[in-house]
């Protein structure tokens, strides 16, 4: 019976390995789908931001404020507060 138990253990190990590999493949597929979706949404948002910036610049031009430079879009810029 020792040989029979050994075969059952090998089969059980093979089944578990196949199950884990399948689970990992499913997780990878879902992760890739979510990643692609997020990237698409970020790209769409970037396009909308560009359209919004263009609309703001068009409105400023219509109002005659064209001479003022657009605000800097650097992340390091902080609003200036008056000195006390």
TrEMBL record:
Q: Which Pfam families match?
A: HSBP1
Instruction: Show the GO cellular component annotation of the record.
Output: cytosol; nucleus
* GO molecular function (one): transcription corepressor activity
Q: Where is this region: Disordered?
A: 60-84
Task: From the record, give the transmembrane residue ranges.
Answer: none
Instruction: Output compositional bias ranges, type Basic and acidic residues.
Output: 75-84
Q: Which GO terms are recorded in the biological process aspect for this UniProt protein?
A: cellular heat acclimation
Please name the PANTHER family in this protein's record: HEAT SHOCK FACTOR BINDING PROTEIN 1, HEAT SHOCK FACTOR-BINDING PROTEIN
Record's family? Belongs to the HSBP1 family.
UniProt name for this protein: Heat shock factor binding protein
